[in-house]
Amino acid sequence: MFEIVKAGGLIMIPIIACSVLAIAIIAERIWTLQRKRITPKNLVPQIWHWHKNNQLTNENVKVLREGSPLGQILAAGLVNRHHSRDIMKESIEDTGRHVVVELEKFMNSLGTIAAVSPLLGLLGTVIGMIKVFTAISTMGVGNPGVLAGGISEALITTASGLAVAIPSLMMYRYFRGKVDELVIDMEKEALKMVEIMQGERERDSGI
User: Fold this and answer.
1) Pick from 36, 206, 43, 178: which is nearest to 104 by CA?
2) Are 189 and 44 within 8 A, CB to CB?
3) What pTM, to 2 d.p., does this model score?
4) Does residue 15 form part of some domain?
5) Tell me: the pLDDT tens digits for 148-184?
6) Which residues contact 123 (CB under 8 A, 6 or more apart)?
7) Is 107 helix (H, G, I), strand (E, B) or coil?
8) Neighbouring C-beta atoms of residue 12, cutoff 10 Å
9) For residue 37, which of 66, 10, 13 has the smallest C-alpha distance?
10) Residue 11, Cβ neighbours under 10 Å: how many?
11) Rounded alpha-carbon distances, angstroms, from residue 25 to 104, 162, 169, 181
12) CB-neighbour burial class of residue 31 (10 A; exposed 0-12, middle 13-18, buried 19+)
């Protein structure tokens, strides 16, 4: 493996750095974007239970806020539960925007890696071909070792750049879709809570 990396030349250094960074981002996002961590089940029924039993205290709201991104959004609405429906929705939407930013953390970096890696591979290809033509112009075609070295460098960097870019792009698209799904789920739960607290939805344990 080291020999392959060495044959790829200096361009392999940023390509390897991109691969390490991409792996770190993918692992972190897989852990962070678990549905059970973002949108735990039964939060809205729990809120109604607290409300019905006069247990909707500041301490419970704080626990809710610190428990998950969905809890953070719902807590923003509960803080303004004594105000109108519009005020509750505005506070939820404002907090929701901050939560979405956190859900999309590192996503732009992963997308950049997916875009830049093949370009680095292409740059390595160009550098390798320049070496080949330089060798041909100075020594002719009588030294196949030099020619093979330049061609090898060009192919290795191209393959390496694509090997980093393809999975990075796939995971970038996957995470984008997952964030969109989570945002929709959080919007539904927040709207459900607003309707319940404002008396516009049936209040029961099967919410």
Assistant:
1) 178
2) yes
3) 0.81
4) yes
5) 666 777 788 899 999 999 999 999 999 999 999 999 9
6) 11, 157
7) helix
8) 22
9) 66
10) 24
11) 11, 18, 12, 20
12) exposed
CB of 77 closer than 8 Å to CB of 92? yes
Pair 22, 120: CB distance under 8 Å: no
Where is 21: in which H helix or E strand?
helix 12-32
In a domain, 205, yes or no: no
Domain count of the chain?
1
Asked if residue 202 belongs to a domain, the reply is no
Determine the structural domain holding residue 72 and report its residue range: 2-197
DSSP notation for 111-159? HHHHHHHHHHHHHHHHHHHHHHHHHHHHHTTS-HHHHHHHHHHHHHHHH
Residue 30 to residue 18: CA distance in whole angstroms: 18
For 85, the token pair is 């429906």
158, part of any domain: yes
